[in-house]
Amino acid sequence: MNLAIKKRLRRLGFWLGMLFFAAFAIFPTVWMLISAFKQNADLYNAANNPFLFNLPPTLKHITFLFTNTDFSVFLWNSVLIGVMVVIITLLLAVPAAYSLSRLVGRWGERSGIAVFLVYLIPPTLLFLPLYQVISLLRAANTIWALVLVYPTITVPFCTWLLLGFFKSMPREMEEAALIDGYSRWQAFLKVSLPLAWPGIATCVVFAFALSLSDYIYAASFVSETASRPLNSGVPTALIRGDIYFWQSLMAAAAIVTIPLAIGYGLLFDKLIQGFQPEAAS
Fold it and tell me: What's the rounded Cα separation, in Å, for the pair 127 and 232?
């Protein structure tokens, strides 16, 4: 077979594979959008095509979501929790990662691995003792319970991520800044921190996304409707016994998922650099 034909076939196979994975990735979002606007008679009729609007689309299920549930309260709680978790995570993970990256010898490497191992502990083993801590702090049934608990997941992971990022930075740059009269703190702020922005962007997206996706902690620590976030409030409001408000559930998922996906897309280059710190050095 001609070499040019082989190259074309390989290129065709590559793009067909990419098209398949793109369709596979976007399918849940398309399904959510179609289902959110479907009428009950269209959605529950097995003879209808589930990928088409067999009856005219309707907005009543989205209206129901905002008027007959506390979705706006859940949304505000989730945004507030996510922002505070991101701030706490950065305040703890950035200096911890920088300090561990400059800790020479075996202890520095072992400490980084130990921090990451904490992240690997499943939440199903931690939510009972953490609930006792939250109860002692009298933070149960408030958003502060989740603000205090989520950093136990985000801080170890972000510390481990930024640890490799800071290690990839040449120490000669900081030493040159110290020779020029900078203090250690000034060298960190003006030399190391600007170079770590791709990793920090990754941590911001990870911490905020985790605060939106976790269910175990949100359902265990908060039972008051006024303090529930989206991840536990929406299922509670839209799943009533054996009645599932599917269209409103899909609408709520789409409202949260699409902006987050756009954010991932805008920060995609930074995310890649954050997981490949050597590329940014």
Answer: 15
Centre a 10 Å sphere on the Cβ of residue 257 and count the other Cβ atoms it contains. 16
Q: Which residue has the tokens 């922002």?
A: 83
Which of the four CATH numbers 3.40.50.2300, 1.10.3720.10, 3.30.2130.30, 1.10.1200.10 does domain 61-279 have?
A: 1.10.3720.10
Q: Which stretches in the chain have pLDDT values below 70?
A: 1, 104-110, 112, 269-281
Distant-in-sequence, close-in-space partners of 124: CB < 8 Å, separation ≥ 6: 216
Name the strand (E) or helix (H) holding 113: helix 106-119
Rg, the chain, Cα only: 24
pTM over 0.70: yes
Rounded Cα–Cα distance for residues 196 and 203 (Å): 11
Copy the structure tokens of residue 18: 């990419």
Cα 219 to Cα 131, 145, 222, distances in angstroms = 11, 11, 6
